[in-house]
Amino acid sequence: MKRLFSLLPLILLLITSCKKDGCNQKMAFNYDPVGNSEENCVWEPIEVRLEFNPVFGNQAFKENQEFTVNGRALTMDFYGIYFTEISLKLDEKDILLGNENEACVVTETSDAILFKDDNRVFESSFLPNADVALTGLSFNLGVDICRNNGLDPTTQTSGPFMPHNPTMYWSWASGYRFVSFNGTVDVSPNADGSDIRNFEYHTGLNSLLREVYIDLNSKELDANDLIIRVNVDFEKIFAEVDFTTELSTHTFDNVPLAEKITENTVNAITVE
Description:
The structure is a single chain. This protein has two domains: 1-43, no CATH class; 46-271, no CATH class. 16% of the residues lie in helices and 39% in strands. The chain has helices at 2-20, 145-150, 234-238, 255-267; strands at residues 46-56, 59-60, 66-69, 72-90, 93-96, 113-116, 121-126, 133-141, 169-170, 175-186, 196-204, 210-220, 226-233, 248-249, 269-271. A hairpin with a 4-residue loop joins strand 9 (169-170) and strand 10 (175-186). The protein is elongated. Residues 1-18 have low confidence and may be disordered.
């Protein structure tokens, strides 16, 4: 009996030591609330899902549905927006989703999405190696210069850069349309519906590539899936457009309007 009592402290010490050697990183697969070791942590990929939501103010936005902009009836037949080099900012480190964290990889498309009415979700993953806070989300509005200059859509059989209908590529410019908006709008002087015309805004060329950065206020992460909801507000995109005079841009033929549509689109992007 005396021998048993003499062994108890050793057993308790071993149990305590094992607990202290447990993983203390919350994002790790084998997180131990009472552990104090980083070396024993096992890391697994965290799935990332970005849900891009078209909205019009506080309403859901849909193609072929009439909305009112500055008192004018507007219907969108098609919208397409390229978001590329999608990255997370974890503490002070930028993590490019997909492409093995290498920017400007012409043959890779896993860090990009063509956001349109039937394609609103971007999915990827990253492998953490320590507890971090999600501080920001960034991406390009438009196709990064590397792929815009070097990627031939006829070589793509799937993914965001393959041929689409309506087209998102300018063969004459050997580059992609960054933003494509087509529809009809009331252009009558009194906005009384007496003159409905087509509008088309097609922006592109490297000079209009814009980086969007959204501060996420140090969101704490855990080992669960990460879902971020990104709103694109078409009311903001069209708010400052004069539909009596500004009905068309293919960028090169109306650069000021292309710049306006580009900047409006950047300002229309928010995170819920």
